[in-house]
Automatic annotation (TrEMBL):
DNA-binding region location: 54-73
Protein keywords: DNA-binding, Transcription, Transcription regulation
Matching Gene3D superfamilies: Homeodomain-like, Tetracycline Repressor, domain 2
Pfam families: TetR_C_1 (PF02909), TetR_N (PF00440)
The protein's name: TetR/AcrR family transcriptional regulator C-terminal domain-containing protein
């Protein structure tokens, strides 16, 4: 008996460590892949919002232990970056499926903006990540699909004849307008969707008529979405500000 106990002890009399069990990555739908993990994470966020996403919850969705997911996303932040990657991969798919070739650089920017708008409206719960994660991640560490989008936009601008500094300026303005427009489109304005009366539906009774008269008057118009037409009109106005009277840009 003593011999048997001794065989189970290592140096210094301590019990020999047993190897850690490797969490299986074979879930209810078969072996995992990064694409499947990100697709499931995005579907979960689409249904229940970002607050519902955790490694444990995602593991339950996929039928695996949470530890198995760390092979595909090393942390919660990495998983969130993966969701951004998934959005931009979907953007690439939409652009590839659009077989109408843009005739010039402005049309190319409009095409890119419209596809981005469509992706965002398809996955509104994930849209905040386009601001929060890109604010937190340095340029060179962003997902490859994000960097390809940057490259695509900058190539259109440089090909149009903008110099390096101006192309960077237009790129920043284009990105700010696009993400800002989408954020305003998706901002909730309805207070009670079950109400049929527009005033109560918007909750105007909650806004002080004395302190906020202009906001109350404009609330109904603010509740309407601008749609792709508003996106295009604003983008044209923005680009006009850079090309009007400029000899450095192509006439398009």
């Amino acid at each position: 008996m003593a011999e048997q106990r001794a065989q189970g002890r290592g140096k210094g009399g301590a019990s020999a460590p047993t190897p850690a069990r490797r969490a299986s990555d074979r879930g209810r739908y078969g072996r995992l892949s990064r694409e499947r993990v990100l697709a499931s994470a995005l579907a979960l966020v689409d249904r229940e919002g970002l607050s519902a996403l955790s490694m444990r919850r995602l593991g339950t969705e996929l039928g695996v232990e949470a530890m198995a997911l760390y092979r595909y996303a090393s942390s919660k932040d990495a998983l969130l970056d993966g969701l951004v990657e998934a959005l931009y991969l979907e953007l690439e798919e939409r652009l590839t499926a659009d077989t109408d070739e843009a005739p010039d650089w402005r049309a190319g920017l409009h095409r890119n903006a419209r596809a981005t708008y469509e992706v965002c409206l398809t996955h509104p719960q994930a849209v905040p990540l386009l601001a929060t994660r890109l604010l937190a991640v340095p340029l060179a560490r962003r997902p490859a699909a994000v960097l390809r989008d940057h490259e695509r936009v900058l190539s259109l601008l440089r090909g149009a004849g903008f110099d390096e500094a101006t192309a960077a300026e237009v790129f920043r303005a284009f990105t700010a307008w696009l993400l800002g427009y989408v954020s305003v489109e998706l901002r909730p304005t309805v207070d009670n969707p079950d109400e049929t009366d527009p005033a109560f539906r918007l909750g105007l009774h909650r806004l002080s008529a004395k302190e906020l008269p202009t906001l109350r008057e404009t609330a109904a118009a603010l509740a309407e979405q601008g749609g792709p037409e508003g996106l295009a009109a604003g983008l044209d106005a923005l680009l006009d500000s850079f090309t009007s009277g400029s000899a450095s840009a192509a006439s398009g």
